[in-house]
């Protein structure tokens, strides 16, 4: 018989009130609170807390508090990832973040989803879809990434965008819903 965690990670409907999942979320919240309550002169302690939260981090990763997540252990961080203030990751499914990725303040990454059918939703069961953010991506402040999306390498997501579909590599995309505005492949830095 599959555990609720196995169901959750495979994208099936699962019970979020399962004791194991509740305990893992509680652990993540305690670690995030300790990180968020730390001061700027506690760099080593912040790094220790983040390593305990995520299990591993890429080199040069930096996260400005406050930072919030559901589990932490479902987040994979590449090298030189930067999160600005007040970012949220609902990592019910895997969130994979490549190298040299930047997040503006208030970015929200949601893998969690709920049934569209009201009766099924009333049951309390949930599901999740993984999110992938490839290398050299910049996500502008206040953007929201919805369940199941992939952001292609070298792309930029405009501030305040709501990403509901995959975004290809090497483009600037913005809006609600987020859509490709133009290619960045032949542009030089401005």
Automatic annotation (TrEMBL):
Report the InterPro entries cross-referenced here: Hexapep, Hexapep_transf_CS, Hexapeptide_acetyltransf, Mac_dom, Trimer_LpxA-like_sf
Gene3D superfamilies, per database record? Hexapeptide repeat proteins (2.160.10.10)
The record's section on PROSITE patterns has: HEXAPEP_TRANSFERASES
Q: Which SMART domains match?
A: Mac (SM01266)
Q: Which molecular function terms from Gene Ontology are attached?
A: O-acetyltransferase activity
- Where in this chain does the record put each Maltose/galactoside acetyltransferase domain? 5-59
A Pfam family of the record is Hexapep
> Keywords for this entry?
Acyltransferase, Repeat, Transferase
Instruction: Provide the leader sequence positions.
Output: none
CDD domains tied to this protein: LbH_MAT_GAT
Q: Which family does it belong to?
A: Belongs to the transferase hexapeptide repeat family.
Question: What protein name applies here?
Answer: Sugar O-acetyltransferase
Name its species: Billgrantia pellis
